Amino acid sequence: MSNISDILQGEYESEYGNEYDLSVQKQFSKPKIYTASGNLKKRWYVYFSYRDPKTNTLKRQSPIYANANRYQTKEERMAILTVYSQILFKLLKRGYNPYADNVELFKKETAKQRTDNTTETPEIKITPKVELKSEQSEEVVDKVKCIEEACVFDMT
After folding, report:
1. What residues have CB less than 8 Å from 132, skipping those under 6 apart?
2. Does residue 31 contact residue 66 with C-beta atoms inside 8 Å?
3. Could you tell me which residues come within 8 angstroms of residue 140 by beta carbon, excluding any fewer than 6 positions away?
4. 29-52 CB burial, b ≥16 within 10 A, e <16
5. Nearest CA to 31 among 54, 66, 51, 61?
6. Nearest alpha carbon to residue 77 among 118, 25, 33, 111
7. Is residue 88 over pLDDT 60?
8. Which is deepest, 35, 119, 125, 137, by most CB within 10 Å?
9. Which of 61-69's residues contact partners 24+ apart within 8 Å by CB, and which partners?
10. What is residue 51's three-state secondary structure?
C-alpha cells in the first residue's frame, strides 16, 4: 500500500520533468528595445534572440535600427521602435525564421490575404456632387492663382 508521501513524490517528479522538457522550449525571445539609457547620441534599436538550429540555444540576432535614429526626441524613437517590436513579434509568432528561407510562408500568407479580400465586397458609397456658389468658386480661383504666382516667384 502506497503512502501519501510516495504519491506526492511521483507527482512532483512528473511535474518537474514537464517544466524542463526541451521540446516545449520557446523558439525566440520577445523583442526588446535598447534605448542607450535615454542617450539620443547613441543608436537605439530592437533586438531579439532566436533558437539556433545547430546549437539549439537562443542566439541574439542582428539589431533592427529601422531609421529610428533619425528622430531627435525620445518619444519619436520609442514610438517607431515600439511599432517595429510589435510587428516583429507578430511575424515570429506566425513562424518567420531568421535561419530559414521564408518565401513559402510569405506566399502562403499573401494568398490567404487575397482570398480574404475577395470574399468581402466593400460597399461603394456614391455621394452627390455639391455645387459651389459663385462666391466660393471665386475664392478657389484666387487661391490657385496665388499658388501659381508663388511658384513662379520662387523659381525666379
Report:
1. 140
2. no
3. 132
4. bebebeeeeeeeeeebbbbbbbbe
5. 61
6. 33
7. yes
8. 35
9. 61/98, 63/34, 64/88, 68/44, 69/43, 69/44
10. strand
